[in-house]
Fold this protein.
Amino acid sequence: DTAVSQTPKYLVTQMGNDKSIKCEQNLGHDTMYWYKQDSKKFLKIMFSYNNKELIINETVPNRFSPKSPDKAHLNLHINSLELGDSAVYFCASSQDGTLGKLFFGSGTQLSVL
Amino acid sequence: QQQVKQSPQSLIVQKGGISIINCAYENTAFDYFPWYQQFPGKGPALLIAIRPDVSEKKEGRFTISFNKSAKQFSLHIMDSQPGDSATYFCAASPGGATNKLIFGTGTLLAVQP
């Protein structure tokens, strides 16, 4: 019954590997996001999709590629993982991109060794 | 101009006391100011939000005070409870745009019993 669910909860991997994080929302929202929270808990937007269309792409390395197969799903694929990619990645959604509240998932703790 | 500065970084309050967290912004285009609450292992959740046409908004024990001329806003938690112990983030965006939400650096609140 979770509104915004993301998997996996924890992801431990070696440098250089490729990994994906999946996100699904059952709220019927049009807009989905990926946020990165670093070790100091700073939250920064990475991407925003509205109805499967990329709206925001903050200065994120090309190794990060979001994919939205439909408006209820937004996955994040990361190539050639680096130590600095270690962080908590949050998926979020909102009714639209213009007003109102963000609903966040519980996060994926990514540890790159 | 896109920054939202938040203080203090951490705060310890006795049960029943008042917790006060402050934020300041530079961008005069910002006109939507939410506060998010984050518990360990969870995503942030919207607590309360304000627009600059009012100077104060209260919801239960939580109050936002807004000073447009000073470009500052603050969260007051009255009768603080141990269950309020969490990280609090202020945020701001222009036009209420959730896809342009800029977060503060967070305040870790600990309410001691």
